[in-house]
Amino acid sequence: MNESTKQLSGTPSNNDIGNHNVVININDTPVITQGQNVLITMSEDGAPTITGSPSTSAMANVPYNFTPTAK
């Protein structure tokens, strides 16, 4: 994750083919809360595309939700 842009990115290789469960956590010191579970499936057909427009703000004591769209 790039700290300045808040972008999560990477380049998969053939060794990455298959399903990958990713958990994105939000750290609001001193509390760490579990964020979003994401399943990324890498196939031999090409790289996956995950899109969405998450909210850039959150409130204390209110669950934060973001559902990405995979194409």
Q: Can you offer a commentary on this structure?
A:
With 71 residues, the chain is mainly beta. The protein has a domain at 1-44. The protein has no helices and four strands. The chain has strands at residues 18-28, 31-42, 50-51, 69-70. Strands 1-2 form a two-stranded antiparallel ribbon. The chain has a two-stranded antiparallel sheet with strand order 3-4. Strand 1 and strand 2 (31-42) form a beta hairpin. It is elongated, with a radius of gyration of 14 Å. The relative contact order is 0.22. The mean pLDDT is 75.
Shape: elongated
- Widest sheet, order of strands: 1-2
- What is the subunit organization of this protein? single chain
Summed over residues and divided by their number, the pLDDT gives a mean of 75
Protein structure class: mainly beta
Question: Residue share in helices?
Answer: under 10%
Count of individual beta strands: 4
* Count of separate DSSP helical elements: 0
- How far from one another are the termini? 21 Å
* Low-pLDDT segments, ≥5 res: none
Strand content: 35-45%
Q: Mind describing the biggest β-sheet?
A: 2 strands, antiparallel
Strand-and-helix sequence, N→C?
EEEE
Radius of gyration: 14 Å
